Amino acid sequence: MMFMVIKMNNTYKAVMDRRNEIMKKSVGIDYNVYEQDGIGFDYELMMNSHGYDIEKIKKIQSENMVGNTPLVELRNLTKYSRKYAKKGYGARIFLKDEAANISGSFKARRAVLAVDKAKELGYKGVIAATSGNYGAAVAALAAKAGLKCIIVQETFDSMNVSQPEIAEKARKCEAFGAEVIQLSVGPELFYTFLKLLEETDYFNASLYSPYGIMGIETLGREIANEINEKVGKFPEAVVVTNAGGGNLTGTARGLKNYGATETKIIAASVNLYGLHMASDIDFNKKSFTTGHTGFGIPFATYPDRSDVPRSAARPLRYMDRYVMVNQGSVFFMTQALALLEGMERGPAGNISLAAAFSLAQEMKEDEIIVVQETEYTGAGKHLQPQIAFAKRNKIKIKFGNPLDEKPGKTIVFPKDGSFLKHQEISVDGLRKTYLKRFIDFNLSNKDFQFLSEELGISIEKVKELI
Amino acid sequence: MIDKGIYVRIRKTILKPNERSENLPKETKQVPYKMWVKGYLQKEADLFDLVIIKTVTGRIESGILKEVEPPYKHSYGDFVPELSKLTEIILNDVYGDKNE
Question: How many structural domains compose chain A?
Answer without folding.
Answer: 3
